[in-house]
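Morning run. Coffee first, then this:
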Amino acid sequence: MTTTMIPQISDTAMFTTDVFATVLVANRGEIACRVITTLRRLGIRSVAVFSDADRNARHVALADVAVRIGPAEARESYLNIEAILRAAAETGAQAIHPGYGFLSENEEFARATAEAGLTFIGPSVHALRVMGDKIRAKNHVAESGVPTTPGIALPGLDNAALAAAAADVGYPLLIKPSAGGGGKGMYVVEAASELAAALDAARRVAARAFGDDTLFLERLIPSPRHIEVQVLADNYGNIIHLGERECSLQRRHQKVIEEAPSPLLDEPSRRRIGAAACAAARSVDYRGAGTVEFLVSDAEPDAFYFMEMNTRLQVEHPVTELVTGLDLVEWQVRIAAGERLALAQDDVRLTGHSIEARVYAESPAAGFLPATGSVLALDEAHGDGIRVDSSLTPGLVLGADYDPLLAKVIAWGVDRGQALARLDRALSETVVLGVPTNIEYLRLLLHTPAVRAGHLDTELIERTLPSLIFRAIDDRLLAAAALFLRAHAEALPLVGGEASATSPWTSRSGWRIGEHQPTPYTLQVGTASPVTIHVDDTTDASRVTVGDCNLVSASLQRIPGRPHGYSVEFDGSVSTVDIVAAGNDVWLGTDGATFRLRVLSRQDQLAARLAAAEPSAGVADPAVRSPMPGTVISVNVADGSSVEAGDTLLVVEAMKMEHRLAAALGGIATVAVAVGDLVSLGQIVATIQRPDPASSPEGSPSPALSEGSA
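And here it is:
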């Protein structure tokens, strides 16, 4: 983790109470690494826990001790209270830090921890119980004078009762699960006709994610801003806030970019919303670090409404740390150990501006579907004002078992403009090859006029996304890939799938009688048409032809000190690119954009040509394939039943997101999977017996639909 040089208030203060000798971190990924980093700085022995899927994870290597707690399935490992408490007992831990997600807001876990004689580094069971239920929390804080969003929030309402109340709430409205958080199970409903299906989906997600399918409804406030306030409270009634964070840039109710302070609030508004947050925390005798979330009117910053309280550390806590100079994890430990707050509200100073971007394993080009793979090359940003909280290591295998968050890139600046510029630079320098990421998308988002001007709301991303132009593969990058393959012909004998290192087919002459021939490499990006690049390096300077283009001079040189970095000269222009190959894939990264190129064999090229052939009118692929690895959670049609184009056939869940697979055309459905089955990327999960072409509408139907719904 790299941080900007901002004085840490907590660095100069000593503990005045006995601290823990050993703390177990009941989490994984970047938050486990983050917590362990502070424990190590404080001289506290750290214990990591891991599932079978995380045996080689970074948090396991970073901790002083690591204990296996079960298989990859979270219910049998990171959500297994008995296994975690057993690990704590075996390692002599005196306290447990839950991180965020998993059991961090689980009152049963907090109670079991206390009953085991351990300290839960978090709030009391009472606070978890009240604030962990959004219905109870909303009604509770309203009694303390905290403004709340209009809606219906009563326990035990079934779908019929919610549907009956929806007309009074008004459309559009928002369905929210009473338990949990992170945007999971939240659905926007624009009209009454959409309500029944949305309620069913919300209950499924809530039941799986939180073990509680209780729902409530809120009026949807048009173009709101999502602003949250960080609070700290000790065991002696002292409560302060550390300013606010702007979290309005969201996609599917998941935060993407966060910053502190908000560009919307002035100092009087900051004081008022901070006082409301402290009142909400005080109403449950809160202790430790917590966050109170509000919806705020862009037109009227003083018009804010309580949404929920997150009784844990937030993903975006680093931006608060960088503008306050406080280590929130350290203060969680201090307070849990009985320490009093060492500063009052008037002591809190916000210095400069900080912005965080979340790096996910996902494919923006494929509708932001979660992605899997192995980290083949890694180069994380560093420099003045840059901090990276990450779980990434070279060689790390990224599966579909957990949330796709990989890292957070955070920038601090003396003002918002400098912070934005530093974050953009840091993202451009971040290299993760071997798995698709959203880094290029983050950079595009940062450059939109509304974001640069600070005119934010929770719907901005959805409005902006269609206008974003992602970088396309160009001749220079294609040439760089071919030159890389040519230079590593012997080191990468499997690339292309046809020849061994000793085969004459890999010789630079092209193994021809007579004149030397250029070596061809046929490459494909996604579903685009393949391109053949010819490399002639039998002369002093390599010459490259990309597709039907003219022959140009090109070269590729290693960059010293950058393991996968190359300087590529193409037709007189020089630039840099990171390149790595594995199997039949070549990965290239440049300025935050990543490309995966498939090296096609002769058989692959023939298959591509056949696939590109024009289909007959009315004919569509009858196979419905899973767009990602995941678990079948719902089968909506019976085997052998008749379906229409667009009908939902089944729902696949991966990384806590639901994806609806629909029929591309009408016909008779044959379903090849059942609820609970694990499916792989591209696996055929259903087929449609096509109707007689004569009865089909003109034109070719679209391929099977896949829609993210969480």
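The mean pLDDT is 88. Good start to the day.
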